[in-house]
Predict the structure of Membrane protein.
Amino acid sequence: MKLIGVKMLAALVVLLSVFSFIQPADANGQKVYVAPVKKEVERGLAAFLERSIEEAEENNAEALILDINTPGGAVNAAEEIGEIMLDSEVDLIAYINPNALSAGSYIALYADEIYMSPSAKMGASAVITSAGGDADRKAQSAWLAAMINAAESSDRDPKFAEAMVDQSVEIPGLVDEGELLTFTPSTAEENNYSKGTYASLDELVAGLGFGDAELVSVEPTFTENLARFVTNPIVVPILLSMASLGLVLELYSPGFGIAGSLGLGALLLFFFGHLIAGLAGMEVLILFLIGIGLVIAEFFVPGGILGIAGLVAIIVSILLAGESIAFMGIALSVALLAAVIGMVIMVKFLGKNLHLLKKIILSDSTSTESGYVSNVNRHELIGQTGVTRTALRPSGTIIIDNERIDAVSEGGYINKDQQVLVVKVEGSRIVVREID
């Protein structure tokens, strides 16, 4: 009996051992993360990729695949992404599907491995200004050095990265002088920049040997998408212009209505997006709120100092919230110009008045039309006669119907007790002439 129990226990151990090897394909514990790198490169993308790398590291992912399709974007945002990728502990794989141009190529260079789709392009990375022209030599030189460093970080030949930025670099058989290098899948693979070409992301995952791994897609959250939208270089001046126009229109409207709500909402959206993107800290938001408080206090404390200090605080907070003070200065100038144009239209063409300022500026007047006069006009005296009570030299006193009246002679001296005729009344000035 004891022998049978031992045999049964041994058989159970064998069965458990067999079943431990019979597992679903994804039960091997492997995970591969995929993060999209789409649209323009800006600081909101940097915050998203930082979160993606952290999630991949925390879950012991085998690799993080960056699904890249971008025309480029902000240089400083790309450099921040490069620093984040450089500190990553998880293997980073760039899948160019289909474009990694300008700042996109810089991001791809920081990946441990690069793969491309059949129609992919990588390169054309010269720095251009927001107006579309070439950047100055200083900016070009700094970006050239950054591209070379990115290539060297993953042991790639930096001359190709240099040719993507500098038109003077010539590589025989690949790029002529005066042109920028743009890799195709074949040229990138021939020069050891790409390790292969795959038609789809699924084919890439299988080709990397992760066919049985769990594929985890990291998608931007609503707040991250909102931050990317708000911090877009095109959207920032539009948002600030909406804020300034909304607040200006509110000055001409009774109460606090739709225009003011839209303006205030645009400002809050601006600061919220820049906070999420990591461009601004809480100290910038606090400075903005202090500025608003000082402007409101100006309505109750005359002098102008609090109002000026409040406006300065608001402007400084907006300048500090952006990716660069120079860019924010341009965006703020556009917003102020929009505000001025809005005020001109409201006053010049629509004839609107500042309802808000009516509460702090005295607008009532004591006009003649309203029945107010500075003195009594005695026009009824014209043509009447009287007697001088005192000599007129040329001013003095006359008596008309037992009423003492101050008067002046039309010409020279008039003695006391002389008959005079009222010939003119100018306000409180009554002019008389001696009757011969």
